Amino acid sequence: MQIGTVIGNVWATKKEDDLQGLKFLIVQPELPNGSAIDSAYVAVDRIGAGVGDKVMVTRGSSSANFAKEHSLPIDALIIGIIDSIDIAVEQR
Amino acid sequence: MQIGTVIGNVWATKKEDDLQGLKFLIVQPELPNGSAIDSAYVAVDRIGAGVGDKVMVTRGSSSANFAKEHSLPIDALIIGIIDSIDIAVEQR
Amino acid sequence: MQIGTVIGNVWATKKEDDLQGLKFLIVQPELPNGSAIDSAYVAVDRIGAGVGDKVMVTRGSSSANFAKEHSLPIDALIIGIIDSIDIAVEQR
Amino acid sequence: MQIGTVIGNVWATKKEDDLQGLKFLIVQPELPNGSAIDSAYVAVDRIGAGVGDKVMVTRGSSSANFAKEHSLPIDALIIGIIDSIDIAVEQR
Amino acid sequence: MQIGTVIGNVWATKKEDDLQGLKFLIVQPELPNGSAIDSAYVAVDRIGAGVGDKVMVTRGSSSANFAKEHSLPIDALIIGIIDSIDIAVEQR
Fold this sequence. Notes:
Five copies of one chain form a homopentamer.
Chain A lengths: L1 E10 L2 E2 L7 E8 L10 E5 L8 E6 L16 E6 L2 E4 L5
Parallel strand pairs in A: 4-6
Antiparallel strand pairs in A: 1-3, 1-5, 3-4, 5-6
Organism (chains A, B, C, D, E): Pueribacillus theae
Subcellular location (chains A, B, C, D, E): Carboxysome
Keywords (chains A, B, C, D, E): Bacterial microcompartment, Carboxysome
């Protein structure tokens, strides 16, 4: 999972039918030390994350694994709001 | 999901049988602020997107999750036409 | 899906049993304007593509979605031979 | 699978329900010779790995393949604690 | 699929239960012309590949598609030992 910070929201009225009602947030991926890496992208949130929260994001097709009956066409899901990170070895 | 803008169309008469009738668009991926990133690619559209639209794209195998009976061999699907993006924290 | 051009063939007598009889081609990925990007790789072809053809390739696990009874261990499939590409907005 | 070293822990009280009880570790990916590459990320551990261990990590949706009844929304799993690596050809 | 050369072995006594008995090799990915690209990684081998062999590797979740009853948590599988590569167009 990737570490990141929620930096915004996306609204899209017209979308695939199965995705109505989902919340879409913009996440800036980061290293464990908080440095930004790569490009910001859109992730689905079902656990109440908001702007400024440090989160863990599952990317790729397993992000759709919460829908037990039918998988949805999404590729990023916020799976946790991070309380703390403990780096024991000097990060390279 | 990746943010991007539809910049063109692709036509392919000869293709895998399961893909007949699908619409293929070219998407230029972008940061939330509209800067182009990475390489343009082909995505399937089922929601009526057209050239110039800012869209959200699901990439990878979950892009095929709309076909309930049998998954198709595609790896990118336009899942929403973006109305607006709200960046609350300065984008890095 | 990625745009690319077929540039060669690969032969492998010894392979996973399920893959006997498949045709393996080498594809050079490209931007819509034909510039080469990234590294050439091997894709399965079932639609009669050949050297010099401009093709669309599905990458990742959904490339195995043509096998309805049992998915094969492949990660790239040529899904269409491109007739034409129309870029409406200046490509970035 | 990617080779890496466990460098820390992540705690997240608020998370997707299915993920309660899982252990999340931070892994720094490496080349076989131990040089760090790419960005550190979070992986699930079920085999007792700890800080300083050299591990093999499966990334992407197959990392969820341990859950036979229902796949979880995770994208990285520590699948082995490495005893030794033997490079026979000079590593490039 | 990616082309590469087997350059070594990895041993891990402690691993996910489902993976006992599998052989893990280190593969250096290459262009069709043999130039090394990207980072070496670990792949499962079931077809008898060994150090020095030029191979095709399936990466990502479809690498687990050989296990018909239950998918394993692996993300790279050697699917063929390459006999020859024929590049018809000058490789870019």
